[in-house]
Amino acid sequence: MSRSVEAFVEKVVARNPGEVEFHQAVYEVFDSIMPYVEKNPVYQKNKILERLVEPERTIIFRITWVNDKGEIQVNRGFRVQMNSAIGPYKGGFRFHPSVNLSIMKFLAFEQVFKNSLTTLPIGGGKGGTDFDPKGKSDNEVMRFCQAFMSELFRHIGPETDVPAGDIGVGGREIGFLFGQYKKLRNEFTGVLTGKGYGWGGSLVRPEATGYGLLYFVEEMLKTRKETLKGKIVAISGSGNVAQYAAEKAMRMGGKVVSFSDSNGSVYDPNGVDEKKLKFIKELKNIKRGRIKEYADKFNCQYLDGQHPWGIKCDVALPCATQNEVDGNEAKTLVKNGCVCVAEGANMPNNPDAIKVYLDAKILYGPGKAANAGGVAVSGLEMSQNSMLLSWPREEVDRRLNDIMKAIHSQCARYGKQGDFINYVAGANIGGFVKVADAMIAQGAI
Ligand code: NDP
Ligand code: 2IT
């Protein structure tokens, strides 16, 4: 870390004690943009870095709801409205017991640069709650979503802040949240994305993060004159992103050999096919069961309590959560011949792991570039909502593919180091410039 980055991050740590995930995200971004900032004094003069680490607004609130037994439950809700320089705040809701202010701020911070990279006019935000949807009935989830929105509705809106899904929030939750917003405001607007098709949703939004990830991987492999055909692909997670990453990887000719959840991983050396994928979608989206049932059903290995990174693969796609790959796991991946790591999840590789990939000069695509397809199609959902129309599947998919290619070009433009593309530097600088220039144009606000 350079002296100036170290000094800056120290101040951020002192001002935001204990927010370790936020510190990690700030360090990662500023480490790559600092040389660019130092070459362009206008950014320092305008205190852009100091402003970027201070959310424009943070809302923290109590959520009170009643469970099926009639007992009162209390949870905590968050919305971090990080930066609106280039558009309304935009970013998902996470429902997971680990949610705290640090995790919300790291995700909102990352979202600012990611959304800038999409080429669309969307600012950055993130929200969520420590409510755990696991084991709750549909009615409990509905009452919780209604209670959550009963506070949040006054802070969001189609031209102010447009939330969507993230961990623990999919179509079911977006439906309940949208219903409550509509009731309280008496307005049918595009205030949330990831809505159902037929009531304002966009085709391809459910698939967008996973599909976009593979479009990005395709571009990365192309720089080395390779394709996914015949490559062995290890995936972690088994939720929205993992499922559609697997679907697209498979359809591109890759062999997907793993999934995971918070209990363990499955290793299927024969590869996932359409039938197995259908089983996972039903298991995870409807039955809400554990990934171990996949190993039982298809008679393959279950790695209890383990990540899938010990499995030999050509391409690794972490699609579960932050810090799910450490330095040793990254070394194992590289040793086993992995040539490409692309992040479906946000910040799944810790700083040691990232260093391993950069030192080995393998293809490494950070989340803010590689998983931006989800929020990009959310942006396209907003466009369709404001035009009161819906585009056909092929149109949305083509736009998603074009956006992922444009993000790849941005990364190559700002990250080229000889014949190596440093996608970390490329994505961070590429995302930064547009937001920083907009902030300068809009004055000291
Ligand atoms: P889902 O809730 O659909 O799935 C999450 C998956 O990750 C599940 O398999 C879950 O296992 C696992 N997981 C979650 N938390 C943990 C944890 N603390 N430890 C181990 N495993 C965990 O979420 P998504 O697929 O939507 O999100 C996955 C990742 O992708 C997140 O990092 C999210 O921020 C990122 N992302 C999502 C986008 C989207 O459009 N949905 C867009 C861009 C990024 P279990 O069921 O056991 O909890
Ligand atoms: O991390 C992310 O980009 C998301 N969870 C999607 C956000 C969105 O607004 O679609």
Small molecules bound = NADPH dihydro-nicotinamide-adenine-dinucleotide phosphate, (2Z)-2-iminopentanedioic acid
Strand order of the largest sheet: 1-2-4-3-5
Strand content: 15-25%
* Percentage of residues in helical conformation: 40-55%
DSSP helical segment count: 17
Instruction: Report the strand count.
Output: 15
Structural class: alpha/beta
| Mean residue pLDDT | 98
What is the end-to-end distance?
30 Å
Biggest beta-sheet profile: 5 strands, mixed
What does this structure look like?
With 445 residues, the protein is α/β, with parallel strands linked by helices. 49% of the residues lie in helices and 16% in strands. The chain contains 17 helices and 15 strands. The protein has helices spanning 3-15, 20-39, 42-45, 48-52, 101-117, 138-152, 171-185, 205-222, 240-251, 274-287, 292-298, 327-335, 351-360, 367-370, 373-387, 393-415, 423-441, and strands at residues 57-66, 72-83, 89-95, 124-129, 161-164, 232-235, 255-256, 258-261, 264-267, 301-304, 315-317, 340-342, 363-365, 416-417, 420-421. The strands form 4 sheets. The protein has a 5-stranded mixed β-sheet with strand order 1-2-4-3-5. The protein has a 5-stranded parallel β-sheet with strand order 7-6-11-12-13, with helices on both faces. Strands 8-9-10 form a 3-stranded antiparallel β-sheet, with helices on one face. Helix 9 links the parallel strand 6 and strand 7. Helix 8 (205-222) packs across helix 9 (240-251). The longest helix has 23 residues, at 393-415. The chain is globular. The structure holds NADPH dihydro-nicotinamide-adenine-dinucleotide phosphate (NDP) and (2Z)-2-iminopentanedioic acid.
